[in-house]
Amino acid sequence: MRRDDLLVVLMRWPSPGTGKSRLVATLGAETAHRLHRGFVADTLAWSAAWPRLIAFDPPEARDRVARAAPGAALAAQPGGDLGGRLAHAFARGFAAGASRVLLVGSDSPTLPEALLEACVGAADPEAVSLVGARDGGFVAMAAARAAAARLPALFEGVQWSTSRTAAQVTARAHAAGVAVRHAGGWYDVDEVADLDRLAADLAGDPGRAPRTAAVLAGLLPAAPPCPPAR
Q1: From CA 117, how far away is CA 114, in angstroms rounded?
Q2: pLDDT confidence band for 1 (50 / 70 / 90)
Q3: Which string of DSSP letters, residue by residue, matches 40-56?
Q4: Which helix (H) or strand (E) holds 154?
Q5: What crossing angle do the helices spanning 29-47 and 210-219 adopt, rounded to 10°?
Q6: Distance of alpha carbon 212 from alpha carbon 46, whole angstroms
Q7: Chain-wide mean pLDDT for the chain?
Q8: Which residues in 5-121 belong to E strands, given as ranges?
Q9: Spatial separation of the C-alpha atoms in residues 124 and 129, rounded to whole Å
Q10: Rounded to whole angstroms, how far apart are CA atoms 45 and 189?
Q11: How far is CA 74 from CA 14, 71, 133, in A?
C-alpha cells in the first residue's frame, strides 16, 4: 500500500435491535448484537495498521466511533441506499487526498490483509478492483482517483444483497468505460450458515478477530466432560 492510499471502513455502529436482521431471526437480538459488536471491534483493530477513514452510521455515533478508532478520519454516511453511501465514501476518501481508495465493510472480520493488498494494488485509472463474496456480492472494492467521477454510475440501480450484485456493478462499470479486475474472493457474515466458515477460520487463527472469536466460543456446544478415571 502506498503512502497516499486510504482504507475506508463503511460501518454501522452496533445498537441493540438494529441491523443484522437475518442473524436476529435465528440467534435473537442480543446474540446478533454481540456478534455485530465483535465484527466492528475486530475490523477497527486490524484496520488501524492502514491510513483510514471511518464512514459511519448513524451520525449520532460519532463520539463512540472516535473513541473506538483513535486517529482515524471520520465521515457520517448520508441517507439513501447503499449505492449512494458507497459513492459518498469513495468521494470522501479522494477529498481527503488519497490517490487510491480501498473500501471495506465490517461484516468480514477475518478478511486477510493479502487480499486487501491485492485489491488496492489492482486498481488504476482505467480499472476498479473487487474482492468478491461467495454470495454474489463483494467484500472489498478499490478505485483510483482518476476513476472517481465515473464511480457513482457503477452503483446506480444495483440490487443490493443479492446473488447478482457484483455482476450488476461489473456491468455498470463496463458501460461507464471502467474495467473490473478481480483480486480474489472471501465471504461476509450475513446468515447463520456463514458462522460455520467463520468459526473454522478462527479455530486456525483466533488472533485475526479475537473479539468475534470470544463471542462465537459462547455459541458453540461445550465439549463433553471427560469420563471419570477408573
Answers
A1: 5
A2: low
A3: HHHHHHHHTTS-EEEEE
A4: helix 151-155
A5: 160
A6: 13
A7: 91
A8: 5-12, 52-57, 73-76, 100-104
A9: 9
A10: 18
A11: 16, 9, 26
- pLDDT, residue 39, reads 96
Convert 5-31 to b/e letters by CB count within 10 Å (16 or more is b). Answer: bbbbbbbbbbeeebbbebbbeebeeeb
147-178 as b/e: b if 16+ CB within 10 A: bbebbbbbbeebeeeeeebbebbbebbeebeb
If you count them, how many residues does the chain have? Answer: 230
Taking the mean position of all CA atoms in its chain, how far away is CA 141? 10
Find the range with the poorest average confidence among 13-17, 67-71, 108-112, 113-117. 13-17
**Torsion sign (Cα): 102, 15, 20, 172:** negative
Q: Give the span between the Cα atoms of 19 and 29, in whole angstroms.
A: 9
Q: How far apart are CA 188 and CA 50, in angstroms?
A: 21
| pLDDT-based confidence at residue 22 (cuts at 50, 70, 90) | confident
How far is C-alpha 151 from the chain's CA centre? Answer: 18
Q: Is the pTM of this model over 0.85?
A: yes
Beta bridge partners of 182: 130
* Cα angle 58-62-64, degrees, rounded to a multiple of 5: 105
The helix or strand, by DSSP H or E, that contains position 140, with its residue range, turns out to be strand 138-144
Angle, vertex CA 20, rays to CA 51 and CA 103, nearest 5 = 25
- Distance between CA 76 and CA 58 in Å, rounded? 7
